[in-house]
Amino acid sequence: MFLKLALKQFFDFDEFRPGQEEVIKSVLSGKDTLGVLPTGTGKSLCYQLSGYLVEGLVLVVSPLIALMEDQVSSLQAAGEKRCIALTSQVEPSDRYAILQRLAQYKFLFLSPEMLQNPQVLKALGGVKLAFLVVDEAHCVSQWGIDFRPEYRLLPGAKKQLGNPVVLALTATATPAVTTDIQNLLLDESGQVFRHSADRPNIAYFVEQPEDKTAWVKEYLSQTKDSGLIYCATRQEVEELYQALSGSCACGYYHGGLASDQRRLLQQQFLQGQLQVLIATNAFGMGINKPDLRFVIHYDLPDSPENYLQESGRAGRDGQAAQAILLYQPGDERVSQFFQQKLWEERAGLLALLAGKISQGTPLQEKWRGVMEQTGKEDLPEQLAANAQGKDQRLQQMLAYIRTEGCRRAFLLQYFGEELTRIPPRCCDFHGASLFTPAESEQEEELFPTTSPLTWQEIMLKLF
């Protein structure tokens, strides 16, 4: 009852969404906690409400500057002024001023790289911490070696901060990733709260048009709904914007835009001034636009984790929404190109480990902490395993495209779940139509069941 009263007082909500209350209770009891909650279920509220009920500064580690800015803007719009993001874009003089005033803030957002800064760690050591939040916690497992090695240093930072309670949050985590997060961030008494990754109101489609741009134009000509279109590169974002700008109210968003431009586009999109936003995956985390009716992936995502998270930004209001993946043979080359760039970085690191690169180079400085914590002898094996994992996730996306069964069942199985209910608008194999208004579609469950459906049962029911 107390938590519901606090929920009403601070957020004017009457009920918690699934998973929120359990996660908050665990944090308030002083236990390290991992919450695996689907996109759109309000993970941010878990640390915000907990933060209001615990004395001290809430330290939030986040992977993207855009995400930090979104979260700060959202808090400020709700009337919370005691929040700030400490990013690489903050001038040194302003950074110093923020660190001198840490006790005045309730929420501080920063990257894992910033948390390795000795000056920052020293300043944080002088204030009372409520708890440490690791947002997008799957980065600890999936990005720790290749993309963001500093995520692997979070256990060390936690120790230097006096081992505060950790709240790790993510929308997507396979059983293996969950175990990785537990081992790295949670102590032995830590608790894990996992809720199904299923979003029954989202229908899943795969389309393979000869001309993707023409297909998108046709789709947009038949809907006035608001949606997101994800592209793999900044160049493609801008090219698609040019192709669509004459036919609908659209804008484009990527990390190359100035921060004030990004904020303006976000506001225009949130306020309904833009029907469509074309973006790289730099857009979306922390954005609360509940009435998105579709998310189109113009390019192939590199993993089911990213696909489920990004497509899950549709239908946050619980109403019918569509997740559409466009594919042409060879689309995987974009992901393979990025993987090749990572191989080049790995090759440089392996040369450093073998003593073939002189000491004191930027490469050595970047990896110094990881080498000290992981051990030089273990890094090559971990790098190889990480590369193999990335390729396997890409292959799973290709298998998702080629499946002739239920797309929802495929995604859930990837995350270690079984399909127990096929909703009326499930996927392009199960009762969903791209251009049929949701209200005219069948409202009953196609195959209601209380036990998991096997692939064989699904195919028998269909055919």
* Overall 3D shape: globular
**Percent range of helical residues:** 40-55%
Strand residue content: 5-15%
In the sheet with the most strands, the strands line up as 3-4-2-5-6-1-7
For the record, give the distance between the C-alpha atoms at the N and C termini, rounded to a whole number: 49 Å
- Give a short account of the largest sheet: 7 strands, parallel
Named CATH topology of the domain at 2-194:
Rossmann fold
Q: What's the count of strands?
A: 13
The radius of gyration computed from the alpha-carbon positions, rounded to a whole number of angstroms, is 22 Å
Total helices: the number is 18
CATH-level-2 architecture of the domain at 2-194 = 3-Layer(aba) Sandwich
Write up this protein:
With 463 residues, the protein is of the alpha/beta class. Among the domains are: 2-194, P-loop containing nucleotide triphosphate hydrolases (Rossmann fold, 3-Layer(aba) Sandwich), CATH 3.40.50; 332-395, no CATH class; 405-463, no CATH class. Helix content is 43%, strand content 13%. It has 18 helices and 13 strands. It has helices at 2-11, 20-28, 43-53, 65-77, 92-100, 118-124, 139-142, 154-160, 175-185, 212-221, 234-244, 259-270, 304-311, 332-353, 362-374, 379-402, 407-414, 455-462; strands spanning 33-36, 57-61, 83-86, 107-110, 129-134, 166-170, 191-194, 202-207, 227-230, 250-253, 276-279, 294-297, 321-326. The protein has a 7-stranded parallel β-sheet, sandwiched between helices. Strands 8-13-12-9-11-10 form a 6-stranded parallel β-sheet, sandwiched between helices. α13 (304-311) links the parallel β12 (294-297) and β13 (321-326). The longest helix has 24 residues, at 379-402. 40% of the residues are buried.
